[in-house]
């Protein structure tokens, strides 16, 4: 009984760390996309001034 409980606890912790990793990766992807977009906009503004 106790062994099964600890096993469930371990799997929950593993799942949480895995989902957090996925969440962080997904967000960093979005942040990178925003960064690229703002960089491209900045280049367009500079080119329009030149």
Could you write a compact summary of the structure shown?
The protein is mainly alpha-helical and 50 residues long. It has one helix at 2-49.
Please report which band the strand proportion falls in: under 5%, 5-15%, 15-25%, 25-35%, 35-45% or over 45%. Answer: under 5%
Radius of gyration: 22 Å
Terminal-residue CA separation: 74 Å
Secondary-structure-derived class? mainly alpha
Query: Main beta sheet, described?
Result: none
Show unreliable segments: none
Oligomer: single chain
Helix percentage range:
over 70%
Order of helices and strands: H
Mean pLDDT over the full residue set: 74
Summed up, the helix count is 1
Shape: rod-shaped
**Domains, number:** 1
The tally of strands reads 0
Describe the overall structure.
This is Macaca fascicularis brain cDNA, clone: QbsA-11687. It comes from Macaca fascicularis. The chain is 96% helix and 0% strand. With 50 residues, the protein is mainly alpha-helical. The chain has one domain. The longest helix has 48 residues, at 2-49. The mean pLDDT is 74.
